[in-house]
Design goal:
Layout: E1 2-3, E2 11-15, E3 18-22, E4 30-31, E5 41-47, E6 52-57, E7 62-66
Antiparallel strand pairs: 1-2, 2-3, 3-4, 5-6, 6-7
Length: 67
Amino acid sequence: MVIDQAARDRLVIAGYAGVRKSEDGGATWTDITGSLPVKNVFGLSLDPATRTLFAGTDGASLYKKAL
């Protein structure tokens, strides 16, 4: 899970079913998987300077997405 330090109510989680984002502290979630293959996501990181989310997967490489 990643907590956006610029907007503390914005959370991003990932697992075996893709990537999801919440803008309200976890009350509701939106699927933001997009072109990411449905694989286990083992690592998430958010670059605060570029607002880019990085997701490391199980055998499908590293993906990035602008938040």
